[in-house]
């Protein structure tokens, strides 16, 4: 079985990111970058599937040359080889999906695992667009995955509960935090990762025009929250909710 999994290089979500004075972009200078946390679940699931069924895990990233660090992290966890589609452009979800679609056509994996979204843009679009471009079935928000006889049974979180979806392979599965607990890279794994191959391509090599269809035109911080207020009793609380907050 061949499993393809994706990783994205994002600014550390625990760091405070500033907005440029004109609001045109985020200022990431001096920020630490890490693997998107939700992609860690996708990588871990890919490795577990390989351990159960045998085969190969290919990890793919679309981004700057520095994203080899995140690929190496996945290789240290247990992935077998990496592919970096190198670009410094600020890509929208559609461009990323079209790039990944060409990689999938070349690699022909049985399963594609991804995080449900990336923490920097919070769009939750790439996997769905990729499914449409490839005409592959998809199972999003997976908390359980079982594969047998060319099919995947995927337990999913949905509004109001859960359901199980059965999809024919090849298929795209996006992971949530309940799916697994990502392993830490061991020292032997880190040493082995240095010798594992990473193939570098460009969007042009894949024949993909990455001109964005969606552009962020302005960033702004949310309004500051007003300070809370201590009330003396329930009657005062109800009065304020009714007459000031207008929620009753």
Automatic annotation (TrEMBL):
<feature type="domain" description="Electron transfer flavoprotein alpha/beta-subunit N-terminal">
    <location>
        <begin position="23"/>
        <end position="210"/>
    </location>
</feature>
<dbReference type="GO" id="GO:0009055">
    <property type="term" value="F:electron transfer activity"/>
</dbReference>
<dbReference type="InterPro" id="IPR012255">
    <property type="entry name" value="ETF_b"/>
</dbReference>
<dbReference type="Pfam" id="PF01012">
    <property type="entry name" value="ETF"/>
</dbReference>
<comment type="similarity">
    <text>Belongs to the ETF beta-subunit/FixA family.</text>
</comment>
<comment type="subunit">
    <text>Heterodimer of an alpha and a beta subunit.</text>
</comment>
<comment type="function">
    <text>The electron transfer flavoprotein serves as a specific electron acceptor for other dehydrogenases. It transfers the electrons to the main respiratory chain via ETF-ubiquinone oxidoreductase (ETF dehydrogenase).</text>
</comment>
<keyword id="KW-0249">Electron transport</keyword>
<keyword id="KW-0813">Transport</keyword>
<dbReference type="GO" id="GO:0046395">
    <property type="term" value="P:carboxylic acid catabolic process"/>
</dbReference>
<dbReference type="InterPro" id="IPR014729">
    <property type="entry name" value="Rossmann-like_a/b/a_fold"/>
</dbReference>
<dbReference type="InterPro" id="IPR033948">
    <property type="entry name" value="ETF_beta_N"/>
</dbReference>
<dbReference type="InterPro" id="IPR014730">
    <property type="entry name" value="ETF_a/b_N"/>
</dbReference>
<protein>
    <recommendedName>
        <fullName>Electron transfer flavoprotein subunit beta</fullName>
    </recommendedName>
</protein>
